[in-house]
Amino acid sequence: MTTYFEADVTTIGPEVELMLEDNILILFNETATEDLKEIAVIHNAQGISGEIEPGDEFVIDDHAYKILFVGGKANETMKDLGHATLQFNGEEDSDMPGTICLENGPNNNISEDSKIQFRKRN
């Protein structure tokens, strides 16, 4: 496995649990506005060293989820803002350009002690 993004979670917004009920997890780095911090998982990374592609994995602590689709703007927003909208819906397409679709089943145990990663499967 080749890890090209790794970060520590620093803050979990109060609305994240509701988003997870809909199988959605929103990431932002620490530059997010206060409004966005309400709904997002905030991390301490600044940038990403690779391109997110279908077949890669998103990892929360030791739980890996296969990436099925990457929207046309997802890599740009990860580089600029540390932002992505992760949908754990098993879909291979989305109308939302910043969305990354993953296999079903987000980990509801994400916490301010969690580590997140994007990595290539070698």
From TrEMBL:
SUPFAM superfamilies: PTSIIA/GutA-like. Keywords: Sugar transport, Transport. The modification Phosphohistidine is found at residue 43. This is PTS glucose transporter subunit IIABC. Residues 90-122 are annotated as: Disordered. One of its GO terms (biological process) is phosphoenolpyruvate-dependent sugar phosphotransferase system. It comes from Salibacterium salarium. One of its GO terms (molecular function) is protein-N(PI)-phosphohistidine-sugar phosphotransferase activity. GO terms for cellular component: cytoplasm. InterPro entries: PTS_IIA_glucitol/sorbitol-sp, PTS_IIA_glucitol/sorbitol_sf. It comes from the Bacteria.
